[in-house]
Amino acid sequence: DENDDETTTNRSSIEEFYHAERVLPNGDYYTGQWYDNFPHGHGKYLWTDGCMYIGEWYNGKTMGSGKFGWPSGATYEGEFKSGYMDGIGTYTGPSGDAYKGQWVMNLKHGHGVKSFANGDAYDGEWRRGLQEGQGKYQWSDGSYYVGEWKNGTICGKGSFVWTNGNRYDGVWDEGFPRGNGTYKWDDGSFY
């Protein structure tokens, strides 16, 4: 009977989903839910190089919410897809730099905020791991730039404001003012 075969298959699939603790052939260690010879569900994976992941798995790949840690002390906590940091997440580096925002295939991509250990911060758009599009970079001394970025560099229309109140509004190329622009001093005079 056709229905008997379907019931047997479903029963078999349910029975294959279980909790496992395994030392894998490559020396890595996994404890958690296991299905069809792969981590599947919630689990903890320890690599021989000292990396660790705790979170959700799907067919042997990190998928869903989780936390990844490196031996350096760096961590990423957030969303994973197909084994990549992908979605919304927070990366904290070993030196104290931190990025909170959108990721695509392990790269900052979309809107995000990066805080540097030295007190500087960038809030804006990212593409393929670099600042790209609109963004604001604030230095720890209080000066800041608001405007366009390209390939991680100030490039396009934007404004730079120094801590003394002086300001430059105009076009930038590779981090330097280029072409037409206006320089204003804090007393209101301009060039």
Explain what the structure shows.
The chain has 191 residues and is mainly beta. The protein has 2 domains: 20-107, Histone H3 K4-specific methyltransferase SET7/9 N-terminal domain (Single Sheet); 118-191, no CATH class. It has one helix at residues 2-16, and strands at residues 18-23, 29-35, 38-46, 52-58, 61-69, 75-81, 84-92, 98-104, 107-115, 121-127, 130-138, 144-150, 153-161, 167-173, 176-184. It has a 15-stranded antiparallel β-sheet with strand order 1-2-3-4-5-6-7-8-9-10-11-12-13-14-15. Strand 14 and strand 15 form a beta hairpin. The N and C termini lie far apart (89 Å).
The CATH class assignment of the largest domain is Mainly Beta
What structural category characterises the helix and strand content? mainly beta
CATH topology (fold) name of the largest domain:
Histone H3 K4-specific methyltransferase SET7/9 N-terminal domain
Quickly count the domains.
2
* DSSP strand tally: 15
Compute the separation of the termini in Å. Answer: 89 Å
Largest sheet: 15 strands, antiparallel
From the spread of the alpha carbons, the general shape counts as elongated
What is the CATH-assigned architecture of the largest domain? Single Sheet
Mean pLDDT: 92
Proportion in β-strands? over 45%
What strand order characterises the main sheet? Answer: 1-2-3-4-5-6-7-8-9-10-11-12-13-14-15
Poorly predicted runs of 5 or more residues: 1-13
Provide the succession of SSEs.
HEEEEEEEEEEEEEEE
Percent of residues in helices comes to: under 10%
Rg, alpha carbons? 24 Å
Total of helices: 1
The CATH superfamily title of the largest domain: Histone H3 K4-specific methyltransferase SET7/9 N-terminal domain
Assembly annotation: single chain
Keywords: Repeat
Protein name: AT2G41210-like protein
Organism: Capsella grandiflora
InterPro entries: MORN
